[in-house]
Recover the amino acids of this structure.
């Protein structure tokens, strides 16, 4: 199995399903955790030198962070409910606690923090929605923490790709610190499939093919993108959701399209 593919598994006693750290991934910036909590179950962490974005992928919860409290937030049961998520940005040197009101799917997205950013709620009405692509390249985007919103390092976005469609395509990459043409951003993909017995494909590859891995992705899997192009394809009949976490030395998303496929943008 690819070392870039982290298979879904049953939650542990704390509800933890996935944990990606810079040390485990062999990179410098992005961290990702996924929890599945039962009603009444809580999880809490201190951010330390990192900032966090808590995304309620599905379910309702009480959230306390930065001396603030938001009760019974969350409007969707899961990511395919055609609703935008509730999230909470937590600044560095802060602490957060979440208690599930219903079965809760919680993503904890982290990256290096910095001064000047306040812990805050990101309600659905502050999440911009857009449509990208055309034909079988159409997908639906929710910008949870884009570069235009305050944070030190984190960029967080979720995407729904209909069955039979492509996403993160035409193939693009962002692995060079070469602004304004391209930014260096590590990235994780947390995948969900609807119905859950389905599958999707993701390929991660570089121009020289020193990295070239193709993966069959199942419901609940995580894919690491340390560098290279990283397109996805959703099998016919199965919608694909993914939550992206990106971070790098500069908080800006500038990507480079693979030259061989750039003609598709003009077709």
């Amino acid at each position: 199995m690819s070392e870039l593919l982290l298979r879904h598994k049953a939650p542990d006693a704390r509800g933890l399903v996935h944990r990606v750290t810079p040390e485990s991934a062999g990179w410098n910036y992005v961290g990702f955790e996924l929890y599945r909590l039962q009603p009444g179950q809580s999880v809490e962490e201190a951010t330390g030198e990192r900032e966090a974005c808590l995304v309620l992928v599905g379910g309702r919860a009480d959230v306390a962070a930065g001396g603030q409290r938001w009760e019974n937030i969350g409007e969707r049961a899961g990511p395919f409910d055609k609703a935008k998520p509730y999230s909470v940005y937590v600044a560095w040197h802060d602490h957060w606690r979440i208690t599930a009101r219903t079965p809760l799917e919680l993503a904890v997205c982290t990256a290096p923090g910095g001064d000047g950013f306040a812990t805050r709620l990101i309600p659905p009405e502050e999440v911009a929605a857009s449509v990208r692509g055309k034909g079988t390249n159409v997908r639906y985007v929710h910008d949870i923490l884009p570069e235009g919103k305050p944070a030190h390092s984190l960029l967080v976005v979720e995407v729904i790709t209909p069955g039979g469609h492509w996403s993160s395509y035409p193939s693009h990459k962002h692995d060079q610190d070469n602004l304004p043409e391209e930014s260096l951003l590590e990235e994780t993909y947390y995948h969900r499939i609807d119905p859950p017995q389905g599958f999707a494909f993701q390929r991660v590859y570089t121009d020289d093919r020193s990295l070239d891995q193709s993966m069959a992705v199942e419901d609940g899997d995580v894919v690491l993108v340390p560098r290279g192009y990283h397109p996805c394809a959703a099998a016919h009949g199965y919608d694909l959701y993914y939550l992206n976490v990106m971070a790098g030395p500069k908080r800006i998303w500038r990507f480079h399209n693979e030259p061989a496929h750039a003609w598709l943008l003009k077709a």
